[in-house]
Amino acid sequence: MNGDPVLRCTGLMKTFSEASFSVDVLNGVYLRLGKGEQIAIVGASGAGKSTLLHLLGGLDRPTAGMIEIDGVKMSKLNDTQRGHLRNRKLGFVYQFHHLLPEFSALENTAMPLLIRRVASSEAQSRAREMLARVGLDDRLGHKPGELSGGERQRVAVARALVTRPLCVLADEPTGNLDRRNADSVYELMLDLNRELGMSFVIVTHDMKLAAQVDRIVRLEDGILKEVADAAHAGDSLAGTETQVRGQPELS
Questions:
Q1: 183: buried, middle or exposed (CB in 10 Å: 19+, 13-18, 0-12)?
Q2: Side-chain half-sphere exposure of 14, counting CA atoms within 13 A
Q3: Please, which residues bridge with residue 200 across strands?
Q4: 11 with 66: CB under 8 angstroms?
Q5: Beta strand ranges found along the chain (DSSP E)
Q6: CA 209 to CA 190: how far, in whole Å?
Q7: Helix 149-161 crosses helix 179-196 at what angle (to 10 degrees)?
Q8: What is the DSSP string of 62-102?
Q9: Residue 113 contacts by C-beta under 8 Å, 6 or more apart in sequence?
Q10: Largest pairwise CA distance in the chain
Q11: pLDDT tens digit sequence for 6-24
């Protein structure tokens, strides 16, 4: 992989402690993500995939290890600086859209830009453009309750991309949709990735969808294992993994 990574983590560990017991969720995760690259993270429920995504996005702090976003070490930032970095460099898509119900599709999409203190007219112009890209230019004034599930998730994708982030972190972005809408939203994300050059880290249980990205990694026993044959990931993952624990990074 050429060039500096958009996202990199080394030796990432996370332990949750309560009362007299503790649980090690991540046991030394190494990952390197290049510009415009798409990575799918798969694994059993409870393996720690969402925990890893939250750490990569600066929404939680690791027990040990290092995370860099565009060369900036998260550990060196205070909470305000971390929030600023997230708004400037990252986009987030979740299984549930998390749209604000009292605001329209246009207002929800423009929100990250308004938080950045972009002028309202420019923020709305850019939001309109992004909603048109996801096929919702005729739904600008509709509130979430007036949209279908697939449409709401498209608004969530537009909101994640409107700031033109370096990297989008997506946690089961199609997990709450039927197959037709899931395929549509996922294809949209991959099209925008190719068109806009953003990097994607996608947590998913859907191997049909995961097989379409550049690389698949499995989170198991707190470490990442590369899946060697992404083209056939939808058929079987058995025997295709290479353990990478202790390597400088997974790239």
A1: middle
A2: 22
A3: 38, 168
A4: yes
A5: 7-18, 21-33, 38-42, 64-69, 72-73, 90-93, 167-171, 199-203, 215-220, 223-227, 241-243
A6: 10
A7: 20
A8: -SEEEEEETTEEGGG--HHHHHHHHHHHEEEE-SS----TT
A9: 122, 123, 126, 127, 162, 163
A10: 55
A11: 899 999 998 888 777 888 8
Helix and strand numbers, DSSP H then E, in the chain: 7, 11
Mean pLDDT of 174-187: 75
Quote the tokens at residue 202. Answer: 């996608």
The Cα–Cα gap between 38 and 58 comes to 19
Query: What is the token pair recorded at 77?
Result: 């930032």
Q: Please compute the mean of the pLDDT values over residues 232-242 and round it to a whole number.
A: 44
Number of alpha carbons in the 13 Å side-chain half-sphere of residue 68: 15
> Both tokens of residue 234?
């939808």
What percent of the chain clears pLDDT 70, i.e. is strictly above it? 88
Q: Which among 88, 30, 47 has a CA at the least distance from the CA of 172?
A: 47
Average pLDDT over all residues of the chain:
82
Residue that the structure tokens 């909470």 belong to: 79
Q: Residue 103 burial by CB count (10 A; 0-12/13-18/19+): exposed, middle or buried?
A: middle
